[in-house]
Amino acid sequence: MIPLTHHLILAAVLFCIGMAGVLVRRNALVVFMSIELMLNAANLTFLAFARDRADAAGHASAFFIIAVAAAEAAIGLAIVISVFRSRGTINMDELRTLRN
Prior knowledge:
Elements: H1 4-24, H2 28-53, H3 57-87
């Protein structure tokens, strides 16, 4: 059986990688993928505690996070496609404002 600390360390590493991707990368698609990675790290944390305590509440929280992540991905992708069609780029440095 894998101890809880291993799950939490993995979740922390995944979250830090996602946070670094959001802060460093300038491509909007990479930023969205990094946000998804951070949400999956939160899922891993909820599920690790649910397994450790033999409680189903962590699984319910993980399902809600998955639903929010799916909605975020769909809306974010629609925004990225719309911005690309109007501006011709998805580089975050060139899209400082969402005017026009």
